[in-house]
Amino acid sequence: MRKGTIFFENKPRIIATGTIAGPKECVGVVGQYVDQALTDDTFGESTYEKAECKMLTYAVRRAIQNAKLVEEEMDLLISGDLLNQIISASFTARDFDIPFLGVYSACSTLSESFALSAVFVNSGYAKNVVAATGSHFSSAERQYRYPLELGNTRPPQSQWTVTGAGGTVISNAGSDIAITSATIGRVVDFGITDVNNMGAAMAPAACDTILAHLQATGKRAEDYDLILTGDLGALGSRLLKHLSEQKGVDLSPNHVDCGEIIYNVIEDEFQGGSGAGCSAVVFNSYIWNKLKKAEIKKVLFCATGALLSTVSSGQGESIPCIAHAVEIENVKT
Amino acid sequence: MRKGTIFFENKPRIIATGTIAGPKECVGVVGQYVDQALTDDTFGESTYEKAECKMLTYAVRRAIQNAKLVEEEMDLLISGDLLNQIISASFTARDFDIPFLGVYSACSTLSESFALSAVFVNSGYAKNVVAATGSHFSSAERQYRYPLELGNTRPPQSQWTVTGAGGTVISNAGSDIAITSATIGRVVDFGITDVNNMGAAMAPAACDTILAHLQATGKRAEDYDLILTGDLGALGSRLLKHLSEQKGVDLSPNHVDCGEIIYNVIEDEFQGGSGAGCSAVVFNSYIWNKLKKAEIKKVLFCATGALLSTVSSGQGESIPCIAHAVEIENVKT
Predict the structure, then answer these.
(1) N or C: which end of chain B has fewer CB within 10 A?
(2) Nearest CA among A207, A266, A202 for reference residue A232
(3) Helix or strand holding residue A116 (H, E)
């Protein structure tokens, strides 16, 4: 590995996913592809945090089940989430007798987890790994911004945290869809301090990682059917295209952002979806379906994360961001 | 890997460490071994969170320097901490042009990071990795418990969060001290709900991982010069010995807990030290010195983490815990 790029010569396979999403999310493009569409975003729980954890647990269990594996066959669970001390992931891990690695990379948790899973499988340390993350609008809103009861006005540059979770089983064999390489991102901070403008904060990190990946692999943007970012939203996506164009790379023909496409109706959610659950649901349902059907064959999946906390912002800090990229390819010959 | 145990046939080496600790910590056993002993626990910063981050940045930079390497030669930074959204690690990573993997495993962050670093180095994906973590008494106290200004009475089962940070460089060559195997822990929850009794909460997780490691490697406790836990404290250490004895394993001859030994005078800190910085400082200074001098040759290092948050405890949850073990050995023949 130099400059963060790893090549997986044994081509670890993505063999199954498990997904669940909230009522608002299921009105959109992911609705017909998720394993469970919730009609009640509390999922029968007494708090939003417990609902978030229950969704993540569902996604892990369902992914293992969809892989036609059982818990005992899983070597590793890699998971993280947005809540303080990643309690959704830790309490989910408590429900499984699987060795657990907790990670934190904000909304880029899924691509960090994919990269780590591929490292473990490619090197032979693990046969079956489950990577999972999720988020919940209401738990994120009250942790990062204001209690919902305040009914605060949302500014137009804001995004809507996705209520949903996704789990992914990565194995040494079992499908044609492989993780062929990955680029671990560096922290990039362009000095954005507006905690409602995640897209602008994260776009430079996405640009840095995507361009580093293209350079390390010797590929061009058009070599991919899809360059899929996590939750830049509409504004952040425009900024990414602008930033990469300045560096001589045109991403516009094949760039899609999970946050930009997850909601049908742009109303309260303004710039689109965000949250670790955004790319977890979109990749693991809608995109996964297209990969399985070979409608798309080669994806550069680059989830993006804003590594702020209410404390860092309260103490006047700007927002450091990161993005990790994984190359996912149908390797059927 | 089965049941979480990985063997590192290429024997990744620990080649250098960098450490810094607060005034209270430096009165104790680590005082003469740390690279920098602070006389002021604000480290010249305006907030405790900024001081914590500055310590972590120091530890990373110093570890790289002590390894006689430069930033450009580092392939990966693996770090996490206790603060919400691991801001110490993320803001530290912002200061370095090194690919960054954020992890969260509470006070077992260092051993999780060691295991991951060894995976990357052993498999050839990285040549030089820096693993780092830290904590600060005052930032932890106000995040997890009460504002210091309240002057709350501390119960006798409590521990004192260590102010300090440690960084470790793990490379493919450069010393005789190798990471030879690791066991990734599972989440264990014995139903403890007292957030002041971390030792009791974490002891079962330490027991689970240590016994799993001994079983997977076919070793006995007495094969190690030292079985080093992270921050069980005095009470937690007694519980670990009791629990393992019940399972037929006597750890008492060679078990030492970083939290139990870090403070000389047991006064306010009652059961001893805790926090991600506890084992980060003790291992990387005091123990590292003994390993380098070959005074001890084989250590099973098992840091322990309590995966709670104020939200999970406030919602009535018990405390899920985890421990990751790494076997560290002087392989000079």
Answers:
(1) C
(2) A202
(3) helix A109-122
- Round to whole Å and give the CA distance between A120 and A123: 5
Q: Is the pLDDT of residue A2 over 70?
A: no
**Given pLDDT bands bounded at 50, 70 and 90, which one contains residue B266?**
low
* Residues A112/B9/B230/B47 CA torsion (nearest 10 deg): -40
pLDDT 10s digits, A92-135: 999 999 999 999 999 999 999 999 999 999 999 999 999 999 99
Beta bridge partners of A130: A77, A169
What residues in A contact B311, CB-CB < 8 Å?
49, 83-84, 87, 143
The residues with which A190 forms a beta bridge, in sequence order, are: none
Distance (Å, rounded) from C-alpha B125 to C-alpha B278? 29
Pairwise CB contact (< 8 Å): B315 & A100: no
> What is the DSSP-derived secondary structure letter of residue A47?
S
Shortest Cα–Cα distance, B56 to chain A (Å): 16
Instruction: Output the pLDDT for position A267.
Output: 62
Cβ atoms of residues A324 and A108 within 8 Å: yes
Task: Name the residue of chain A whose CA is nearest to B91's CA.
Answer: A320
Number of H helices, E strands in chain A: 11, 14
Q: What is the pLDDT of residues B68-89, one digit of tens each?
A: 999 999 999 999 999 999 999 9
How many C-alpha atoms does B201 have within 13 Å on its Cβ side? 28
Nearest-angstrom CA–CA distance, A88 and A29: 25
- Who's near A289: CB < 8 A, 6+ residues apart? A33
Cα distance between residue A205 and residue A324, in whole Å:
9
Query: In chain B, what is the straight-line distance between the N-terminal and C-terminal CA atoms, in Å?
Result: 27
CA distances from B280 to B116, B284, B288 (A): 16, 6, 11
Percent of chain A with pLDDT over 70: 98
Q: Does A262 touch chain B (CB under 8 A)?
A: no
CA distance B293 to B282: 16
Q: Record the tokens describing residue B203, joined without a space.
A: 């002891």
Q: Nearest Cα to B212, choosing from B185, B248, B179, B239? A: B185
Q: C-alpha B213: how far from its chain's center?
A: 18
CB contact under 8 A, B102 and A184: no
Of B4, B57, B48, the residue nearest B216 (C-alpha): B4
Tokens in use for A207?
């640009």
Query: pLDDT grade, residue A268 (50/70/90)?
Result: low
Cβ atoms within 10 Å, residue A333? 4
Inter-chain touch A189–B122, beta carbons under 8 Å: no
Q: What token pair was written down for B55?
A: 């310590």
Residue B204, CB half-sphere, CA atoms under 13 Å: how many?
A: 14
Give kind and range of the element (H or E) at residue B13. strand B13-21
- Using DSSP, state whether A326 is helix, strand or coil: strand
What was the pLDDT predicted at A282?
98
The C-alpha atoms of residue B91 and residue A318 are separated, in whole angstroms, by 10
Q: Which of A99, A145, A108, A48 is nearest to A229 (CA)?
A: A108
Give the C-alpha separation, A289 to B157, whole Å: 53
CB B4 within 8 A of CB B186: yes
